[in-house]
Design brief:
The structure holds two protein chains of two kinds.
Chain A lengths: L55 H12 L22 H7 L2 H4 L11 H18 L3 E3 L5 H18 L6 E5 L6 H7 L3 E5 L9 H7 L4 E7 L11 H10 L3 E6 L11 H4 L3 E4 L19 E3 L11 E5 L2 E5 L16 H37 L15 E4 L10 H10 L6 E2 L8 E4 L7 H20 L1 H6 L11 H6 L6
Parallel strand pairs in A: 2-3, 2-4, 4-5, 5-6
Antiparallel strand pairs in A: 1-7, 6-7, 8-9, 10-12, 11-12
Helix pairs in contact in A: 2-10, 4-10, 5-6, 7-8, 10-12
Chain B lengths: L7 H11 L29 H13 L8 E2 L12 H7 L2 H4 L11 H18 L3 E2 L6 H16 L4 E5 L4 H11 L5 E5 L18 E7 L10 H10 L3 E6 L11 H4 L3 E5 L15 E5 L11 E6 L5 E6 L5 H4 L12 H39 L3 E2 L8 E5 L5 H9 L2 E2 L2 E2 L10 E5 L6 H12 L1
Parallel strand pairs in B: 1-13, 3-4, 3-5, 5-6, 6-7
Antiparallel strand pairs in B: 2-8, 7-8, 9-10, 11-12, 12-15, 14-15
Helix pairs in contact in B: 3-11, 5-11, 6-7, 11-13
The chains are: A alpha/beta, B alpha/beta.
Chain lengths: ~475, ~450
Amino acid sequence: MNGTVGASGLILNEPLLWEKGSKGRRGMSMVAAEVPNAPVDADLCDEGPDFPDLSEIDVVRHYTRLSQWNFGVDSGMYPLGSCTMKYNPKLNDRLAATPEIACVHPMLDDACSQGALRIMFELQEFLAAITGLDAVSLQPSAGAQGELAGMLIFAAWFESRGERRTKILIPDTAHGTNPASAALCGFTPVPLKSGADGRLAVDTVAAVMDGETAGIMLTNPNTLGIFESNIRAIAAVVHAGGGLVYGDGANLNAIMGIADARKCGIDVMHLNLHKTFSTPHGGGGPGAGPVCVVKALEPFLPAPRVMRDEGGYRLAAGGAESIGRLHAFHGNFSVLVRAWSYIRSMGPEDLRQASRLAVLNANYLKARLQGTLHLPYGQPSLHECVFSDLLQHGAGITTLDIAKRLIDYGYHPPTIYFPLVVPGAIMIEPTETECRDDLDQFVAALQAVVQEARDNPELLRQAPVRTKLRRLDETRAARHPCLRG
Amino acid sequence: MRYLPHTPEEIREMLAVIGRNDIDDLFASIPADCRFDGAIPVPTAMTEWQLGALMRDIAATMTVGPDHCVLVGAGRYHHHIPEIVRSLAGRSEFLTSYTPYQPEMAQGTLQGIFEYQTLTARLLGLDVANASLYDGASALAEGLLMGLRVARHGRRVAVSMAVHPHYREVVRSYLRPTGYEIIELPFGPDGRTDLSPLQGVDGLAAVAIQSPNFFGVVEDLKEAADPVHAAGALLVAAFTEPLAFGLYRNPGRCGADIACGEGQSLGLPVSFGGAALGMFACRGEYVRSMPGRLVGETVDLEGRRGFVLTLSTREQHIRREKATSNICSNQGLCALTTAIYMASLGGSGLRQLARHNYDLSEYLKAGLVAAGAELVFSGPTFNEFVLRFAGDFAPVRQRLQDRGIVAGIDIGGCSPPHAGCYLFCVTEKVTKKDLDTVISEVRA
């Protein structure tokens, strides 16, 4: 493993918070009381939570050590398919923390918050411009809530027309959250099989589209990284049947300034700002999942949204058809500021260039890894490519083993076992922010792992061996849940 | 562009490996009639210093800034955030990682969230807390949906009208296509929820009460638990100000089955209401009906303690349309941030801070009542309360705002019967001097 990124480091042990500290220690100084103690109803009171008492340095060491057990985009390549783990610019964090912006209270009059409203208004406009759609709500807090918004809009649209539709079409190459989001709105998912070429066929949709079907949820490019090139014809079939087309925008990073959602026939689309628009994922959020629609569906959007008139920027409540609020206030505002900052930094040319380079990187990896790993779909693909462990079956090695051994080489593994249409899937999305040298090193690491699978498969089964902990017993965690200390 | 590392030469070489002449050739699978026309209509790129200057211009248009004394809560609270909280939560190993799908590379996030779950469960007095939901409002909606799952034959939920009006709107949005009925519970002159409309209601799955509620009034949850349980329903305790549990009895000890609400006041900036944190906890027997992610303890191959995402058979990626929720990305970093905050305060600090907030707010309340204002609700409060003034308060409020103090908000917009009533909030960021200024301006 000489010359690879991974190396052993000085990693320190650290107990759980309540295994350290001492009663009476303090990590935050309290001001002296300026006013007298007020009487309080003792019947309603209690002794307060059983938290450990820690000093400032206790807390600092604790979380610094924990952070050193983590791997982020700033640590190295994170080619997690469909997650778009691109570099998260530092400037965006800085701007979101601008004191006047970070302290703005959401219950004050619009006149107090013109700057914050301007950022939201501009972001609404930018996202409409990038997708080609007409109107945007920034309320949803993540992709899945954006999907929920989309499905609520479907339900409200049919309700406004006095129709009741119960089914929703979802191809096997769509994102995993789609069925659960649809089910929350009372729709029964109807799974559709993609064709041998990894694309959904028009006939497949035509065969099931009927008067009880609310529409289709399509991820484009799909989770194989393949553009659904029949999308216009599919949309025409769905529209002819009175249905609506939902575009899952999680993979927008492949097509900014290249494909136009409206021309594709999409009526509603959510975006993941924590993917395409570079906001940091924070180990599981906060994200943001704005929802974009065509003009006819604008009245149904979640509210409030920001409008502009002669008086400046203002929050506009929704009309009778709006699906209402999805968030107590305006979604994950600090994430919205970061995405605004990213779009402002990139401009029209570099947004498009980001997609072009993301696709170049994925195709470069695909070309270089062919033969090393099995490629189940040879069709042209865009920002990600999906391999499998088929060639390693002879050695008794699985995708999981390959993924775990990659960790020893200093890489976050790709997405594994998804999409479900590929058994043992290894789904790689490098993003545009990896340079050629880093891609070459990643290829070398994967080739070395595959060589080890032939020569010494036990190395893979035992991996990872250079991390703080070895493989963890997930079965035990589920059988005997211990969810708190 | 500094975020895009490719040189023209590298691009040529990479294309040669792929066997193409131009990057555009890689997009041949996109039909002409799906193509984007022309350049994306967004403004041209800005350098770091240009964008910094633009942000300064935008910040200058904010008429209420960080130096103002803002006596407004109503769901978001200005508390002091210790410097270590910002600094530690901003470490890029936490910030730039994904959901911990590969536990060997994410023990920092996983232990951090396990600790968050533990502190949250202890704060709320319940057995188990999840890894977070989006915000307090969607957490309440998820809590009611969970109540409907647990009750099986339930088809109604009841929600107090003293719950934050925006939370009630979100609940309506979530439940609208499900066909379940929402019963609205009124409140009495003490500002506490009136449970009497529940008598004789059948098919009741859950009852949601917020404490402290939108009016700042602390509800008697303990009294509510028995009638709610007797009706066969779960008691869902909502909250927007969890600091109150440093002083007042927590939802679990009052008999709540589910506690769900907003965690912003524990170390997150107000930031126009987001990024937020949906805190969610329940009794152990209901854990398999719970929405959201859970981190659990386990061991590695060598028997050492470690943490993983667990009980994921409840979740969307496994159970698909039968999942307990569609949530995937949650508010991981916000959860970690509040855990750092709770660790910084400790049990002693949290109690002291809660008491400090209470005393300051009682000081303003008593001072304004002495100056002629009328307390709208008679129930006990935490750090918020509602007042009605003898004359028109708006000009007084404007004079105070000119002096850098935002004195409450008129709640008529969200609670029409209370037009002209003002909701005040006091936290530790406010000084006695500010409060005395408000009191003397009202007296004048």
